[in-house]
Design goal:
The structure holds three protein chains of three kinds. Chain A is an alpha+beta fold. Chain A is 36% helix and 19% strand. Chain A has nine helices and 13 strands. Classes of the chains: A alpha+beta, B mainly alpha, C mainly alpha. Bound molecules: heme-A (HEA) (2 copies), dinuclear copper ion (CUA) and copper (II) ion.
């Protein structure tokens, strides 16, 4: 099956294509294997539709004007049906539709079948953040501001197929990378997958890190409505040279000190609901949590002394993470995701240490 | 079958007041209280139609205000904190809490678009043409005195009102933030301790009942109450399309009924059928939901097409092109529309299902194409009056075709992977729903307004506001196609900066649109208060409603009409009430004389 | 083409008030009684189609979950006693017969029999509901058995009584509830609650239909008493009958699906 290349379909093709898909902040043209074919079929439909629509509109307006009513006259004799014509305008569109369907089907199957050598990573979605576990178990500590939110940056190697196995911990989400022209729903209790092969880094669309490494960023958006912070549930896919990719994820995985580990956990999983600067969000802030009194919706409460007792505090935080519904802090909804089974003891200890550090 | 000589005098109504004491259906039967009571308990399909019209327009206004709130919030990329910034101040003073957190403030936005979608779909567009215009005109067009079950008809209206009240109750309790699609498990878990989601879902359930009963009533009416002489293929195409719609309503709505019931059970009793936490299947909900909600998009568009089927031939004074293919296209759309629901779920169903659904979706586009081309063919060599209804019809052709054509990349598997849940979809469905159905509905209102209320309106002003709407509409929604292809997801309270310009243009467009509709509203109010008295047949239509007075008498016809000519025989039949000089069909003078005799020379000559 | 005689406009009251059957005229917008009857019947059939579609949603859910969790469904249905289901099937079949008979009675002017048959049909409906609630829902939901339930004899007497001894408690039997409410300690399958969700939804919605049907029959019964139905006008009885047959028919589908397939 030959795919139509938008740049060769028409002279105007490039300009229109770029207008339709261009996004100023990041990259330009198709950014992953497969995106080119999706764009091709899109542009094909676009031009066919234009070719139908423009004459249609011109005729409509021209006739509306030419045959405008003049008093004392009636409509001229003209056939009120014509079987050949009517057949033609059912069958011809059907032909075009069939072609669109087949092209779309091929593109779609290519999208779904990942090559066997794809690097497999695990992506977890929840209200309202993404966590990516690399093959070596590392998780990204890097963050970047998008809008008003710091979102995780996922590093992937250039020109290598990558496959995400995705699952949601709560409601439906969808993983969309507009530059790759693809998205896939992320569903609780069922694995779905998303694969892509980022184009090689070329000079046109890349940035450079402080250390002189080339990279290219692509936005990730959550495309399935998932509640309050649906629109903040973004991430960035950063395409980097392969060697740099391996170096970085190994570095991430090296032992880090507990406070830093906790901070990374926070950034990846908790920041959408818990601030560390004292501001109110979906959940209580963590600033000053150590040693401050707690009141719960069931009427019970903890004193500052209890909360400053290391063992008691650790116990409480651990429970809050694993079974949040046990004690609901007064004034907040019972909204927090239970993390039991999703988080390691080392990570919990890291979080405890990190919270303590937030005086 | 059109021969002039057998035009039967019985088809003609007599002028108001002549020989009968009933008067028009609008004539009050007593004082204020009596009149209100009379309307509240009426079984007259015309009054019920008018009551639907009032209710639908009111809900359209609420839905429109919610849309403006949505657009206003989207004027700036970052969610506005109430009380700060331009839109923040606006939202803050009307809806918000100045101390709200990001999440709470986003939540406000989420409720606004849910409210907007749910109102527009369940309370506006589904009942708009069938329940308001259909109720009024379907029986008259087939020569019946009323619908088959008049009391059931009134009951449907009350059910509609009850459903709307449930919806409004839910809004007053704080609104829901699920989106109009109520996807589980979000809809079963959000605001867990609150009843308002339950109320909103029940509202949709109850409105569904109203819709089923209306559909059932129309099917029976069309089957059983056609006037003598009116075979199936002598029916006006309006009736055909409303009939096809009614079948869809009857067959699809029960499925959403059970789905919504299970959703309510899920929330109240945590039964777990759709809840993955309890082993249920959230995708099953989507199947159930779209099994109804896809046919329902044709429940929305067929009546819109029905209106266009009448406007174009009447205002072109020309027989419609391809009558039979039009009728069969309506039925074809209705039938295939049951088999394509999965195209809303390309990113969540299996490959095989997605493929089949994609193929079938293209199939449903074919009869639509037939219709579009037939309308164009009707214009050819017509005698076209640029009246307000005709302007709306041309707007419809333009906007609906764009909407339909942009459905194609959505139906294509590989491109939908990109476009699904983006603003491209939002633009697509506004072009078909708003640019299609709502524009047709407002056009139909202009077409039949003189008949319904016996008053003309200022045609020039009406055209001006139609054009304002046209401009506003395209500015609002064309930009959204580009937003979508460039990567703007739907249901976003905030977005990255690079989408800002397009969003701002879109927001401006929506204000223009609001001005346009407010203008139309003013035109109608002015007509009611100070409009010229409408002639019996201002546009020169041939279907039966143009044979009775404006406004019609309580029983529509004084004698049972007998139909002797087709609905669109403009080249041989002098439109009732028209002057042969203006309309030189064969034997025009004899027709006019026969007509005048039948009328006991009571009807004024023409509209000029 | 014949011209249909012009009819005088009649007041709406003609169709609404208590008109004896032999004086009944069709509502004013119908040409005659026959046409009205056909119209109402078509409407009723359409309505029955919507009811079937309503239940078909439930049947789909049943099929999907049965395929996904066959174990849970076999387990769950093994707790249903086919004898109660069977008895209820018989009760409904008999009631369908008496319903049909009452229509015949009205057509033959046998009003006393018609009234008896209508009452009997309603009584069957009531019996159906009693069996459902006392012998099926209550024990499964809570472990309290009605004293007359034969199943009681298979269980050890826990000695707990309620409502003056009318209900006996069986330890460990209850808790077979839908969804999250499920807390039957001896369940062997993690998804058994889904079976109970389907079971309670399907039978619950069906039971609601039984109640609505009884209401319709009661309404028809009153109208028969007022002499509004007879050989030339029996629309209401016929429609109530159609509805009742539908309620029966749906049970005929539910019974094997829930009780018999393991
Ligand atoms: C009035 C309502 C209406 C109508 C009529 C349509 C008509 C069509 N719709 Fe649309 N649609 C909606 C309302 C409607 N839709 C809504 C509300 C949603 C979103 C719901 C939500 O998620 O909230 C939606 C979403 C939607 C999707 C899902 C998108 C997604 O979420 O990923 C798809 C995918 O296939 C689709 C396809 C189509 C197609 C192919 C048609 C076709 O019927 C169009 C056929 C018409 C034409 C094609 C134009 C005329 C034809 C010609 C001029 C012929 C010549 C053409 C050629 C030779 C090319 N629609
Ligand atoms: C019939 C259906 C319909 C109609 C008419 C409209 C009309 C409009 N809609 Fe739409 N919309 C939907 C159905 C509709 N919508 C649906 C189903 C959704 C999806 C919701 C979801 O995601 O869950 C949606 C979502 C939606 C969004 C996306 C939100 C998001 O995803 O974040 C946006 C954003 O711009 C929007 C804007 C508008 C605007 C500006 C109008 C304007 O056209 C409105 C203009 C109207 C007025 C301003 C009212 C003025 C009226 C009067 C003054 C009285 C009129 C009286 C007479 C004319 C006699 N709508
Ligand atoms: Cu996650 Cu939307
Ligand atoms: Cu659809």
């Amino acid at each position: 099956m030959t795919m139509i290349d938008p740049s060769t379909t028409l002279i105007l093709g490039d300009a229109v294509h770029d207008y339709i898909f261009r996004r100023d902040g990041l990259g330009g043209r198709s950014m992953a294997d497969g995106a080119a074919s999706a764009d091709g079929i899109f542009m094909f439909i676009f031009w066919i539709s234009t070719a139908v629509f423009v004459p249609f509109t011109v005729l409509m307006l021209y006739w509306a004007f030419k045959y405008r009513r003049r008093p004392g006259t009636i409509a001229q004799a003209s056939p009120s049906h014509n079987t050949m014509l009517e057949l033609a305008w059912s069958v011809v569109p059907l032909g075009f539709f069939a072609y669109m369907f087949f092209e779309g089907f091929h593109g779609y199957m290519a999208r779904l079948t990942s090559p066997p050598d794809a690097i497999e990573m695990h992506l977890t979605a929840r209200k309202w953040s993404w966590t990516l576990a690399y093959p070596n178990g590392a998780e990204t500590p890097v963050q970047q501001r998008v809008g008003a939110q710091d979102v995780p940056v996922f590093y992937v190697p250039e020109d290598k197929p990558v496959k995400f196995r995705m699952i949601s911990q709560d409601v439906l989400h969808a993983f969309w990378v507009p530059d790759f022209r693809a998205k896939m729903d992320v569903i609780p209790n069922r694995y779905t997958s998303f694969w892509f092969k980022p184009d090689r880094l070329d000079s046109a669309s890349t940035g450079t890190t402080d250390t002189g490494v080339k990279y290219r960023d692509h936005f990730v958006f959550c495309a399935e409505y998932c509640g309050d912070l649906h629109s903040e549930m973004a991430a960035i896919i950063r395409v980097v040279p392969e060697a740099y990719y391996h170096e970085t994820i190994n570095k991430w995985n090296d032992a880090v000190d507990p406070v830093e580990l906790g901070r990374r956990q926070w950034a990846a999983k908790c920041a959408s609901c818990h601030s560390v600067d004292g501001s109110k969000n979906t959940g209580p802030t963590w600033k000053g949590l150590y040693g401050s009194s707690r009141e719960f919706t069931d009427g019970s409460s903890y004193t500052p002394e209890q909360m400053a007792n290391d063992d008691f505090f650790a116990e409480y935080i651990r429970e809050s993470i694993l079974v949040p519904a046990k004690k609901i802090v007064a004034g907040y909804p019972n909204q927090m995701t239970p993390w039991a089974g999703q988080i390691s003891e080392a990570q919990i200890n890291g979080i405890i240490a990190y919270i303590k550090s937030l005086k | 079958m059109a021969t002039i000589d057998d035009r039967n005098a019985d088809t003609l109504g007599s002028a108001a007041g002549h020989g009968h004491d009933e008067g028009s259906y609008l004539t009050p039967r007593g004082g204020l209280i009596t009149t209100i009571w009379d309307w509240a308990t009426t079984v007259d399909h015309k009054k019920i139609g008018v009551m639907y019209l009032a209710a639908v327009l009111m809900m359209f206004f609420f839905g429109g205000v919610a849309a403006l709130a949505v657009r206003t919030e989207l004027f700036s990329p970052v969610r506005e904190v109430p009380g700060e910034g331009i839109t923040g101040q606006w939202l803050g003073s009307f809806l918000g809490n100045p101390d709200a957190s990001i999440a709470e403030n986003n939540n406000l936005y989420n409720r606004a678009f849910t409210l907007h979608g749910a109102i527009m779909v369940f309370m506006v567009i589904i009942p708009s043409v069938p329940a308001a215009l259909g109720n009024f005109f379907l029986p008259i067009m087939i020569g019946a005195k009323d619908v088959a079950f008049p009391r059931l008809n009134l009951l449907s209206w009350y059910i509609y009102v009850t459903g709307s009240i449930f919806g409004i109750m839910s809004i007053l309790m704080g609104g829901v933030d699920t989106g109009w699609t109520f996807y589980t498990p979000y809809s079963t878990t959000t605001d867990a301790d609150q009843m308002r989601v339950v109320y909103m879902v029940l509202a949709a359930f109850i409105l569904g009942f109203s819709s089923i009963l209306t559909g059932l009533n129309f099917v029976v009416t069309t089957h059983k109450l056609r006037a003598p002489g009116m075979g199936w293929f002598d029916m006006p195409l309006f009736v055909w399309a409303v009939y096809a719609t009614s079948i869809l309503q009857v067959l699809a709505t029960p499925v959403i009924g059970i789905t919504l019931l299970l959703l309510v059970f899920e929330r109240l009793f945590r039964v777990g059928i759709f809840d993955p936490g309890l082993g249920g299947d959230p995708v099953l909900f989507q199947h159930f939901f779209w099994f109804y909600s896809h046919p329902v998009v044709y429940v929305m568009i067929l009546p819109g097409m029905a209106v266009i089927n009448e406007i174009i031939p009447v205002h072109s004074h020309k027989k419609i092109f391809g009558y039979r293919s039009m009728a069969f296209a309506s039925l074809g759309i209705a039938a295939v529309s049951f088999l394509v629901w999965g195209h809303h779920m390309f990113t969540s169903t299996g490959e095989l299902a997605a493929t089949v659904f994609s193929a079938l979706t293209f199939l449903v586009a074919v009869p639509t194409a037939v219709k579009v081309f037939n309308w164009l063919g009707t214009l050819y060599k017509g005698s076209i009056s640029m009246t307000p209804p005709m302007v709306y019809a041309l707007m419809f052709l333009f906007l609906f075709t764009i909407g339909g054509l942009t459905g194609l990349p959505l139906a294509t598997l590989s491109t939908d992977m990109h476009l699904h849940d983006s603003y491209f979809v939002v633009a697509h469905f506004h072009y078909v729903m708003m640019g299609g159905t709502i524009i047709a509905f407002i056009g139909g209102l202009h077409h039949w307004w003189p008949k319904m209320f016996g008053r003309m309106y200022n045609e020039r002003a009406a055209i001006v506001f139609a054009l304002v709407q046209f401009v506003g509409f395209n500015v609002t929604f064309f930009t959204q196609f580009i937003l979508g292809t460039r990567g703007m997801p739907r249901r976003y309270a905030s977005y990255v900066d690079e989408f800002q310009t397009l969003h701002q243009i879109s927001t401006f467009g929506s204000y223009i649109l609001a001005i346009g509709f407010t203008g139309s509203l003013a035109v109608f109010v002015h007509s009611l208060l100070a409009g010229k008295k409408a002639p019996q047949n201002p546009w020169g239509g041939l279907t039966l409603e143009w044979h009775v007075e404006s406004p019609p008498s309580t029983h529509n016809f004084h004698k049972e009409p007998i139909v002797h000519h087709g609905p669109y025989d403009f080249d041989t039949i002098l439109p009732p009430g028209w002057d042969p000089k203006d309309y030189p069909v064969p034997n025009a003078h004899e027709q006019a004389e026969a007509y005048a005799k039948a009328q006991h020379s009571h009807v004024g000559s023409s509209h000029h | 083409m014949t011209t249909v005689p012009i009819r005088e406009t009649e007041s709406h009251a003609t169709a609404t008030g208590a008109v004896p059957w032999h004086k009944y005229k069709a509502a004013h917008h119908f040409r005659n009684k026959e046409e009205e009857f056909d119209g109402v019947k078509l409407g009723m059939w359409l309505f029955l189609a919507t009811e079937v579609l309503l239940f078909s949603g439930l049947f789909c859910a049943y099929a999907v979950f049965r395929i996904l969790h066959p174990e849970a469904f076999t387990n769950g249905s093994s707790y249903l006693d086919w004898r109660w289901g069977g008895l209820n099937t018989v009760v409904l079949l008999v009631s369908s017969y008496t319903m049909a008979a009452s229509i015949r009675n009205v057509q033959l002017q046998q009003f006393a029999r018609a009234k008896f048959n209508l009452l009997f049909t309603m009584a069957c409906g009531l019996a159906f509901l009693c069996i459902k609630f006392l012998f099926e829902y209550t024990p499964k939901w809570s472990g309290w058995f009605f004293v007359l339930d034969p199943a009681l004899s298979h269980h050890e007497d826990s000695g707990k009584r309620a409502l003056g001894g009318l209900f006996h408690f069986v330890e460990g039997y209850g808790g077979k509830r839908p969804g999250e409410w499920f807390d039957y300690p001896f369940s062997t399958d993690n998804y058994e609650h889904l079976w109970w969700s389907v079971y309670y939804s399907a039978t619950g919605i069906h039971a609601t239909h039984v109640i609505i049907g009884m209401g319709l029959i009661a309404w028809v019964y009153l109208r028969v008493r007022k002499g509004m139905y007879g050989p030339t006008h029996y629309t209401g009885v016929e429609m109530a009958g159609l509805y009742w047959h539908l309620v029966d028919l749906i049970w005929i589908f539910l019974f094997p699906l829930l009780y018999l397939i393991h």
